[in-house]
Amino acid sequence: MASPEVHLRPITDADQAFLRTLYGTTRADEMAMLPWDQVVIEAFLDQQFQAQHAHYQAHFADAGFSVIETAGEAIGRAYLLWTDSHLQIIDTALMPAWRGRGIGTGLIRQWLAQADRHGLSVGLHVTLHNPALRLYQRNGFEVVGDNGLYLEMRRPALAVFHVDRPA
């Protein structure tokens, strides 16, 4: 199946409700195992989303915080920090209805190709149970750290060769 055309746009304050909903979907399996009622779960997710959002904004102030869209519909988020030597994929997620369509794979490959063109290493963190772990492994990422909650993965920079042509 061909993946739809997607693009990134900067997040705005108007995106907060969407981003909170998306965040909840990333924790749905975990929340389903808890004996909490829905009101408590929603309060917990609200608090966790706000804490995560504030953390990202404070610790990655130079990052690009984007909504992933297709045909004007917000379908995910991509938080990326590009530096002169490294791309840090801070966070990326798609709404459940958009998962499994090749969108995440296409975006990762696009970002890796751009990193490769500039000779950048690429890093990210992922939970051990995240299905995207296999995607990252297929694309050359290796585990370089494990804090018990997240695996730290890195893909080294590819050598960039410049061919000098005679004048």
Keywords:
167 residues; alpha+beta; Aminopeptidase; seven-stranded mixed beta sheet; 7 strands; 29% strand; Acyl_CoA_acyltransferase; transferase; GNAT family N-acetyltransferase; acyltransferase; GNAT_dom
Description:
With 167 residues, the chain is an alpha+beta fold. The protein has a single domain (7-155), classed as Aminopeptidase (3-Layer(aba) Sandwich), CATH 3.40.630. Helix content is 36%, strand content 29%. A seven-stranded mixed β-sheet has the order 1-2-3-4-5-7-6, with helices on both faces. Strand 6 and strand 7 (150-155) form a beta hairpin. The longest helix has 22 residues, at 38-59. The termini are far apart. The model has no long low-confidence stretch (mean pLDDT 93). Residues 6-158 form the N-acetyltransferase domain.
Main beta sheet, described?
7 strands, mixed
Q: What is the count of helical runs?
A: 5
* Fraction of residues in β-strands: 25-35%
Q: Count the strands?
A: 7
As residue ranges, the low-confidence spans are: none
User: Span between N and C termini?
Assistant: 47 Å
User: What is the ordering of alpha helices and beta strands?
Assistant: EHHHEEEHEHEE
The largest sheet has its strands arranged as: 1-2-3-4-5-7-6
> Which structural class best describes the helix and strand composition?
alpha+beta
Rounded to an integer in angstroms, the radius of gyration calculated over CA atoms is 18 Å
Q: Indicate the multimeric state.
A: single chain
Shape: globular
CATH superfamily: Gcn5-related N-acetyltransferase (GNAT)
- Mean pLDDT, to the nearest integer, reads 93
